[in-house]
Design goal:
Elements (H helix, E strand, L loop, with lengths): L3 E2 L7 E2 L4 E10 L2 E7 L10 E4 L6 H13 L2 E13 L4 E11 L8 E7 L12 H12 L1
Parallel strand pairs: 3-7
Antiparallel strand pairs: 1-2, 3-4, 3-5, 4-8, 6-7
Keywords: Hydrolase
InterPro entries: NUDIX_hydrolase-like_dom_sf (IPR015797), NUDIX_hydrolase_CS (IPR020084), NUDIX_hydrolase_dom (IPR000086)
GO molecular function: hydrolase activity
Length: 140
């Protein structure tokens, strides 16, 4: 896709870079936490996600998101991978984290489910690719 430039020759270029999003595959008491955002349809669950803030280290940011959305402290943070998400013009930086504490959902989330890792099934978009990669590594 071509970059948008000033037609008057002013030199301005709109780069339209994708937004960096953090995703956390949270392991909690041996299960994986999937959450439903209040804006999502009933039955739609996913990983914990949020935007990387300006100047923020991604490892610090993913721990912040887990704390803000689930009320858990994140430890043992391991990068799963980086994934393009063209549909939302984002790039997803996904981590596996171990969550400690008691789950307390913030106002963005309606509910959560704890899924045994062997019952976790990846989906074919967005953070689902990180789930697939994590499951594949876990199997080896």
């Amino acid at each position: 896709m071509p970059r948008l430039s000033c037609s008057a020759g002013c030199g301005f270029v709109h780069w339209d870079n994708p937004a960096p999003v953090l995703a956390a595959l949270v392991e909690y008491q041996g299960a994986i936490v999937l959450a439903r955002n209040r804006a999502w349809a009933a039955g739609a669950f996913g990983l914990i996600t949020g935007f990387l803030e300006r100047g923020e280290d991604p490892v610090v940011g993913v721990a912040r998101e887990v704390r803000e959305e689930l009320g858990l402290e994140a430890s043992a943070t391991t990068l799963i991978g980086v994934y393009p998400f063209a549909r939302k013009h984002e790039v997803i930086i996904a981590y596996h984290v171990v969550g400690r504490g008691e789950i307390a959902l913030n106002e963005e989330l309606a509910e959560f489910r704890l899924i045994a890792p062997e019952r976790l099934k990846p989906w074919d978009f967005g953070t689902g690719f990180a789930v697939s990669d994590w499951l594949a590594r876990r199997a080896n």
